[in-house]
Amino acid sequence: MSITRQNLSVIIVSYKSGHVIENCINSINGEIEILVVDNSNDHQLKKKIETKYKNVKCILSEENLGMGGGNNLGIKNVNKDFVLILNPDVTLESNSLNEIFVASKEIDKFGIIAPISNKYEFPNYVLKKGHNFDADIPFKVKSVDGYAMLLNLKKLKKIDNFDFFDENFFLYLENEDLCKRLIEKNEDIYVIPKSKINHLGGKAVDPKYRNEVEYLRNWHWMWSKFYFNKKHYGYLVAFFKVFRNLISAKAKFFYYLITLNTFKRKIYQMRLLGLISCMIGKNSHYRPNF
Fold first, then answer.
1. pLDDT tens-digit map of 19-59
2. In this predicted structure, what is the pLDDT of residue 141?
3. Number of structural domains, the chain?
4. In a domain, 14, yes or no
5. Which pTM value belongs to this model?
6. Is residue 1 part of a domain?
7. What is the rounded average pLDDT of the residues 237-258?
8. Is the distance from CB of 14 to CB of 21 less than 8 angstroms?
9. Claim to verify: residue 155 and residue 269 sit in the same structural domain
10. Do 228 and 168 fall within a single domain?
11. Beta-carbon neighbour count of residue 105 at 10 Å?
């Protein structure tokens, strides 16, 4: 199942990402179609990148859809057989895509394949229990991180009653959920160790919004953790999975309240609010305040 420049599109979901997104675009071969889905409705960004890059189209979403919703919107607007999903703070090495093209000819079937992070201490995949891998050969995994994953649209669109990203997740674990559902459909997920990428990690949003981004991440990490476990294993399992987080967040909230550390207090307040919101059945409603 061969991937080429002609049958591949790249989707980049951005939000206040003007400081890094051009580095991402510049690392992609100019012959490949790129679709930027901007969740911040940034008309200046759209004009700038569409003027500068002939292979880039930018869609402005009417609302902040989050990562999963933004990627779903992108998928609806491409007509290629394969789509590479990238975060705006990711850059490809010079041979990253060529290694994927070569590997795709050797793998019999796959639902997702992914490059590998060049930060080996922070792997972008989870191995199946008891599995090892060769550093030169594509290997099967349980899941891959959502900041760099290539979907076989031609194959996945044939699965009955299959949606791509669950849009109930706004941020975090939408990739884990997608991978789990694909594994349950007997689809294979591979990592290509010769295809390397650099991920800045948490740098996709302009750093001037640092505090609000931290609040957002902490709220949604806890909401998504409970929702993921409730969806796949039931409410009681989800509760036991997050019980320690609940107690820890509550204790640290009061500690930082007493010690007058406003930033840390707000972080653990966000964790508590995100977790409680999901536990009582509210959707992932919290949005950045900038």
1. 999 999 999 999 999 999 999 999 999 999 999 999 999 99
2. 95
3. 2
4. yes
5. 0.93
6. no
7. 97
8. yes
9. no
10. no
11. 9
**d(Cα 251, Cα 120) in Å, to the nearest integer?**
34
Q: Is residue 87 predicted with pLDDT exceeding 80?
A: yes
* 113 residue type, one letter: I
The residues near 218 (Cβ < 8 Å, ≥ 6 apart) are 267, 268, 270, 271, 274
Q: Which residue has the tokens 């996945």?
A: 156
Which whole-number Å values give the CA distances from 243 to 117, 207, 248, 274, in the listed order? 32, 32, 9, 13
Quick one: 173 and 213 in the same domain? no
Averaged confidence pLDDT in the chain? 94
| Total number of residues shown for the chain | 290
Domain range for 247: 208-279
Please list, in sequence order, all residues whose beta carbon lies within 8 angstroms of the beta carbon of residue 98, skipping any fewer than 6 positions away: none
Neighbours of 140 (CB within 10 A): 16
| pLDDT tens digits for range 155-191 | 999 998 888 999 999 999 999 999 999 999 999 999 9
Nearest to 115 by CA among 17, 123, 22, 107: 123
Q: Looking at the structure, do residues 144 and 230 belong to the same domain, yes or no? A: no
